[in-house]
Amino acid sequence: xxxxxxxxxxxxxxxxxxxxxxxxxxxxxxxxxxxxxxxxxxxxxxxxxxxxxxxxxxxxxxxxxxxxxxxxxxxxxxxxxxxxxxxxxxxxxxxxxxxxxxxxxxxxxxxxxxxxxxxxxxxxxxxxxxxxxxxxxxxxxxxxxxxxxxxxxxxxxxxxxxxxxxxxxxxxxxxxxxxxxxxxxxxxxxxxxxxxxxxxxxxxxxxxxxxxxxxxxxxxxxxxxxxxxxxxxxxxxxxxxxxxxxxxxxxxxxxxxxxxxxxxxxxxxxxxxxxxxxxxxxxxxxxxxxxxxxxxxxxxxxxxxxxxxxxxxxxxxxxxxxxxxxxxxxxxxxxxxxxxxxxxxxxxxxxxxxxxxxxxxxxxxxxxxxxxxxxxxxxxxxxxxxxxxxxxxxxxxxxxxxxxxxxxxxxxxxxxxxxxxxxxxxxxxxxxxxxxxxxxxxxxxxxxxxxxxxxxxxxxxxxxxxxxxxxxxxxxxxxxxxxxxxxxxxxxxxxxxx
Length: 498
Prior knowledge:
globular, Cytochrome Bc1 Complex, Chain A, domain 1, six-stranded mixed β-sheet, alpha+beta, 17% strand, single chain, five-stranded mixed β-sheet
């Protein structure tokens, strides 16, 4: 916390004292990079203020790379990456290894029976009983959470990961003098993965889907919004995938997907903390050079066609109503993308933003409003989301009217100089806060390196804010926030629909 505050206060001092552009060369000078012979790139953000280091492995694969039949496999693989290796996580790895083909054969037999024109439920039940017994037997051979236990024993914290439409990211922190432990553990799980507890972990993912999507009205709505807004592009599918796909993914599917995507050319590793480049190079050569070579995934070729007209849908739930709009917007490489961030601060972000002040603070028509560009991802053209949560007695139609009035006002008249300056100041402060967290900054650097072509573009975004004019925002709204480019979704209470 002390480290965060000191960096943040230093950045804010610079921010408050400057007029427009800011020279980030001081931060950039702490960044170095190198690439191993196998194509694996490392980015180091050196910080010697405390003897701690954070490590991030960025894999250039997400749900947008998936296909019909294995939707959700990127997220399932992320879960399995914590299950250890042939050396970590087992009481008897040879006994485990013998059980895998037996379990997988029974599962394959079950799937074949389930897909017959007239499946035999008794046969399926018998096969499932056999599979459950083998799963239980295999479970007795597992040392639970040994990967995490080893890290904690040596001072490791924050072991976690996330999967999105555009990437899969793994991270944790250790005392800097334990960097070799990180190098051994991290390289091992990506050269010697042992997908133990496969069927058990698949059930965990299924339950995650139930909790976050199937049993959550807003989760359902967002999934329906994606499916409706995108016609051809794989952004139409949620990261977790359909339940039927999760149930049908096999261990072999995961192994194949791992080989296709988890190789040196498709990964970038970031390190921040009290480590110098010489140390990192030595560890990288010793441990990570064994990761197989491979090409970086190219951008997917499917392009979402222009939307022909407004799309709309409503789901009825015994819950709070919601209004969520999705306007088509460009990807992060497009010069208009940063303009949407400025627009957010004029439109919905902060107490003085237009929609926030009008419907939340003054008229109390909404409990909350918000907006964001780059949903469900920003690697490809996506959506600019605008959401509103109506107050008691207020309809989604009323809120939609307010949103449309504020959008019309932005189209008709340029934003005033004072309002624009205030919005830019809030956005810059937000960007500075992100840079004050080394691990968060490192993830941004890796993402920019892969998606935008250079980690330096993280710093360019700050100064690009100053170039956005009132005329730019007016044209942005006129070009993008139009009915024919939007998808309107709502939650209405059961029994109160039109």
